[in-house]
Amino acid sequence: MVHVARPLLLFLAFFLHADAETPPRFTRTPVDQTGVSGGVASFICQATGDPRPKIVWNKKGKKVSNQRFEVIEFDDGSGSVLRIQPLRTPRDEAIYECVASNNVGEISVSTRLTVLREDQIPRGFPTIDMGPQLKVVERTRTATMLCAASGNPDPEITWFKDFLPVDTSNNNGRIKQLRSGIDFSPSSLSLLFNVLSTFVMS
Fold first, then answer.
1. β-strand 69-73 against 127-130: which pairing, if any?
2. Is the bond preceding 122 in cis, omega lying within 30 degrees of 0?
3. The Ig-like domain covers which part of the protein (predicted)?
4. Which whole-number Å values give the CA distances from 14 to 1, 6, 20, 21, 104, in the listed order?
5. Which 3 state secondary structure label does DSSP give 16?
6. Looking at beta carbons, which pairs linking 141-145 to residues 24 or more positions away fall under 8 Å?
7. On the CB side of 160, how many CA atoms lie within 13 Å of its CA?
8. How far is 52 from 101, CA to CA, in rounded Å?
9. N or C: more exposed end of the chain, with fewer CB within 10 A?
10. Per DSSP, what are the bridge partners of residue 182?
11. Helix (H, G, I), strand (E, B), or coil: what is residue 9?
């Protein structure tokens, strides 16, 4: 009897563990941003869970719905980017909410967007002095995209490809972010990137 019961118990334990479901958990949350009217803002939100959580963006408690609001999902389904362009003041100034849910639970996180008029831009606000240029290169060749920004304090530069953030840590060494720019090797025939420089008011 003992020899028969033990494998049955092990099988049942494995079966229960394999079917275990987990509630959503954020792996990346959006941060407050200050933008300029006519500019762009991108909020990033990612979550994990089993089953994979569904992510929805809300503005003032309602799902975002506007031609200027675009939600771009990550290829692996781990989250999405809320992109707003062009920014309008004061209509876009609000608290935005990322909601991640599955059949086990639901979580949410909020972020604030502030939009300034041109005459409200404070001294030290970041400016892109040199933006990346569209390049066409041969396959297997290395492409270098350059970006220069200034501000006080020094602005943080984030690279996006097809409106999704570039992950320099999970690309088999093909993409490297350098002090002088970002390298892609080997590259595709054409690469189109845009750069977002963020500023947080204290």
1. unpaired
2. no
3. 24-114, 126-162
4. 21, 12, 10, 14, 20
5. helix
6. 141/185, 141/186, 141/187, 142/183, 142/184, 142/185, 142/186, 142/187, 143/183, 143/184, 143/185, 143/187, 143/191, 144/181, 144/182, 144/183, 144/184, 145/181, 145/182, 145/184, 145/191, 145/193
7. 20
8. 8
9. C
10. 145, 177
11. helix
Q: Give the max Cα distance, the chain.
A: 84
CA distances from 102 to 19, 55, 58, 76, 173 (A): 15, 9, 17, 16, 34
Q: How far is CA 192 from the centre of its chain?
A: 17
Distances from the Cα of 109 to the Cα of 2, 47, 129, angstroms:
51, 11, 33
Residue matched to tokens 């690469």: 191
**What amino acid is encoded at 66 in this protein?**
N
Nearest-angstrom CA–CA distance, 124 and 155 = 9
The structure tokens 């941003």 sit at: 33
Q: Which residues sit opposite 150 in a β-bridge?
A: 127
Other CB atoms closer than 10 Å to residue 189's CB: what's the count? Answer: 9
